[in-house]
Amino acid sequence: MNDKEFRMRRLKELVREFLVIIGEDPEREGLRETPERVARMWINELTVGYHESPEVHVKKFHIENSGESDEIVVVRHVPVRSICEHHLLPFFGEANIAYIPRHEVLGFSKFARIINIYSKRLQLQERLTNQIANALMEILQPKGLIVMINATHTCALIRGVEEPLYMTTYSDRGVFRKDHALTKKALALFSSEDVPIKPTPQSHTY
């Protein structure tokens, strides 16, 4: 039995025990397959990011850049789906990314892949934002980078909050920390529907 099979079997046993503890009958119709379904979901989907590295999935494209250009590349509306570590319930939303390339750019799908790797773990939204920013800085080494995530947390909804609550987390690097005009321009691009966007492409919480 390999490590994954062992973890799958143990989690299945624990889910079954959980059902008993909350007063359910794991042998009743509708719950008989639940322990296996839940174990497979957590091992194969929700936490698969623990066993993946973004560098493996990234193909960069070299661009000619004298280093003096401040052209901003923006990637918008990238889906984010993760599990809050406080209550083990989902939070979901979207990420917006802006960066100023030095010599490398990424295709749109690679941003989604990197975000997915860090999302498929138990997370805090603040930490997720920083981890994505750190990974992109290491991979791209841009002159500046902004990562912003807007998300709804189901732990708040299911526990009595009647209206959806959106949490925004923001992390910046490089020139965006010093050049406020450049930062303002990048943030405006996140919400603009008129500006053409290239589909390549310390944390603050509001």
Give the topology.
Layout: H1 3-21, H2 34-46, E1 60-62, E2 73-84, E3 89-100, E4 104-106, H3 108-119, E5 122-123, H4 125-140, E6 144-153, H5 154-158, E7 166-174, H6 180-191, E8 204-205
Parallel strand pairs: 2-5
Antiparallel strand pairs: 1-4, 2-3, 3-6, 6-7, 7-8
Helix pairs in contact: 1-2, 3-4
Summarize the structure.
This protein has 206 residues and is an alpha+beta fold. The chain has helices at residues 3-21, 34-46, 108-119, 125-140, 154-158, 180-191; strands at 60-62, 73-84, 89-100, 104-106, 122-123, 144-153, 166-174, 204-205.
Uncertain regions: pLDDT < 50 for 5+ in a row? Answer: 195-206
CATH architecture of the largest domain: 2-Layer Sandwich
The number of distinct helices, counting runs of at least 4 residues, comes to 6
> What do we call the CATH topology of the largest domain?
GTP Cyclohydrolase I, domain 2
Number of spatially distinct domains: 2
Average residue pLDDT: 88
Strand adjacency order, main sheet: 5-2-3-6-7-8
Separation of termini? 47 Å
Specify the helix fraction band: 25-40%
Shape label: elongated
Tell me the number of strands. Answer: 8
Rg over CA atoms: 20 Å
Report the sheet with the most strands, covering strand number, pairing sense and barrel closure.
6 strands, mixed
The CATH superfamily of the largest domain is known as GTP cyclohydrolase I, C-terminal domain/NADPH-dependent 7-cyano-7-deazaguanine reductase, N-terminal domain
Structural class: alpha+beta
β-strand percent reads: 25-35%
Order of helices and strands: HHEEEEHEHEHEHE
CATH class of the largest domain: Alpha Beta
